[in-house]
Design brief:
The chain is mainly alpha-helical. It has four helices and two strands; from the N terminus they run ααββαα. It has a two-stranded antiparallel ribbon with strand order 1-2. Strand 1 and strand 2 form a beta hairpin. It is flat, with a radius of gyration of 32 Å. The mean pLDDT is 78.
Length: 144
């Protein structure tokens, strides 16, 4: 490579690195990373709730069955539909929690927007006086 080619490549890489730094520093990326980490932890908690608390209770209710061991053998393949049922319940609980969370957040922001609308700026005395004069002039013009 020529010296000019190397310099151009270094400039491009510095531009790329700076662009990457700018991307990482944006608030949305950090919020997303925090959300993914918290979501993973929340998923673990929900899985434990389903596996260790809910499914044993459901198993007792339906006659002492353990869902995690439910399976069907087809030839040499084992279809573990009990595990699938647990995962579906996990999903439904997570989806319900996210729904409740979004609903609460929306309710909070709607209240905030209503409060913002209520606090309209008051008109100054001069503006009120000018509007009154305007209305009187309109009224007088209609009489003529």
């Amino acid at each position: 490579m020529k010296k000019t080619d190397i310099k151009e490549e270094l400039k491009k890489s510095k531009g790329f690195i700076n662009e990457f730094k700018t991307f990482i520093k944006r608030g949305n990326v950090l919020d997303l990373a925090v959300g993914v980490i918290i979501g993973g932890a929340f998923g673990t908690i929900v899985s434990s709730l389903v596996d260790d608390i809910l499914m044993p209770i459901v198993g007792v209710i339906i006659g002492g069955h353990d869902f995690s061991n439910l399976s069907i053998t087809v030839g040499s393949a084992v279809i573990k539909y009990g595990s699938f049922i647990q995962n579906v319940i996990d999903f439904l609980i997570v989806a319900f929690c996210v729904f409740i969370f979004v609903k609460l957040i929306n309710k909070f922001f709607i209240k905030e927007k209503i409060e913002e609308k209520k606090e309209e700026p008051k008109k100054s005395d001069e503006v009120l006086l000018l509007e009154e004069i305007r209305d009187l002039l309109k009224k007088n013009n209609k009489k003529k």
